[in-house]
Amino acid sequence: MHFMTALADAWRQHDSLLCVGLDPDPARFPAHLKGRPDAIFEFCAGIVDATADLACCFKPQIAYFAAQRAEAQLEALIDHIHDRHPTVPVILDAKRGDIGSTAEQYAIEAFERYRADAITLSPYMGRDSVEPYFAYPDKGVILLCRTSNAGGSDLQFLNVAGGAGEERLFERVARLVAEEWNASGNCALVVGATFPTEIARVRELTGDMPLLVPGIGAQGGDIEATVKAGRSAAGTGLMISSSRAILYASQGEDYAEAARRAALATRDAINAHRQG
Questions:
Q1: Is 95 marked active-site?
Q2: Is the CA virtual torsion 7, 11, 13, 14 positive or negative?
Q3: How many percent of the chain have pLDDT more than 90?
Q4: Residue 276, pLDDT score
Q5: In this model, does residue 221 exceed pLDDT 80?
Q6: What pLDDT does residue 220 have?
Q7: Which pLDDT score, from 0 to 100, does residue 215 have?
Q8: Active site residue: 34, 59, 95, 139, which one?
Q9: Per-residue pLDDT band at 217 (split at 50, 70, 90)
Q10: Chain centre to alpha carbon of residue 107
Q11: Which end of the chain has fewer beta carbons closer than 10 Å to its terminal beta carbon, N or C?
């Protein structure tokens, strides 16, 4: 199924714009999982099973797996999601960006090895560094635009228009993706919840293109401001990501149940502002 179709179905079927981020840190695992060789898989699978009906997508961050030599557990986790929760698409949060020949290998890694439904990428090296991912037209290509970290302004807020005009780099990225790179209708953009004014600007530039929005929860982004700035005319258009606030709602044996409660509260808080 096309990533965008799966995402739209999940928005509707689960009544949710919540993306559950999977950033497993073994130091924060419940005691009963620590030291197990499959601890990362078991922890994440517990979160997934507890929250799947509340989420529009899952977003495993590849560095948290690779740093622990747990790539095989990441493969198993994505297989588990596809097998047990096939209505919830998986975004591999990798933020790749490299020359075309290397990008081809990264695309194989994401879409053939891991079987992700979408991947996050950096657009910094231009279209030819993104082109290999477009060879998989049913997969989502999610490009960094206005990121949630404070340092993103070092580059993303620079005026790139020249002369008397004014266009900031993140606006140029939004326009390029919406107007030139989205021939297969499979592109989305990353815009941080910590910058609602910029979310609104990106929405203005891109129409109903989906936006992946990190930065609520532990990073302090405001849910109401995020939803009002980024929702589409249909009250969807967003994948609002929360990771740590859900994953580590409890560090006891009830961690999955606590994660469900946190996810439910977050989904409902988001839904309170979807229409208006």
A1: yes
A2: positive
A3: 88
A4: 65
A5: no
A6: 67
A7: 82
A8: 95
A9: low
A10: 17
A11: C
The answer to whether the beta carbons of residues 60 and 78 sit under 8 Å apart is yes
- CA-nearest of 62, 60, 54, 70 to 259 is 54
Q: pLDDT, tens digit, for every residue of 189-201?
A: 999 988 899 999 9
Residue 230 backbone phi and psi in degrees, to 5:
-110, -10
CA-nearest of 184, 276, 186, 185 to 234 is 276
Distance (Å, whole) CA 276 – CA 96: 37
For residue 242, the one-letter residue type is S
Residue whose structure tokens are 């340092």: 151
Who's near 2: CB < 8 A, 6+ residues apart? Answer: 137, 138, 185, 186
Distance CA 264, CA 227 (A): 16
C-alpha separations of 99 from 102, 112, 171 in Å: 6, 19, 23
Q: Which of 237, 235, 245 is nearest to 266 (CA)?
A: 245
Pick from 98, 99, 97, 78: nearest CA to 89 = 78
Which pTM was predicted? 0.96
Residue type, 42: E
Q: Three-state SS string across the chain, please?
A: CCHHHHHHHHHHHCCCCEEEEECCCHHHCCCCCCCCCCHHHHHHHHHHHHHHHHCCEEEEEHHHHHCCCCHHHHHHHHHHHHHHCCCCCEEEEEEECCCHHHHHHHHHHHHHHCCCCEEEECCCCCHHHHHHHHCCCCCEEEEEEECCCHHHHHHHCCECCCCCCCCEHHHHHHHHHHHHHCCCCCEEEEECCCCHHHHHHHHHHHCCCCEEECCEHHHCECHHHHHHHHCCCCCCCEEEEECHHHHCCCCCCCHHHHHHHHHHHHHHHHHCCCCC
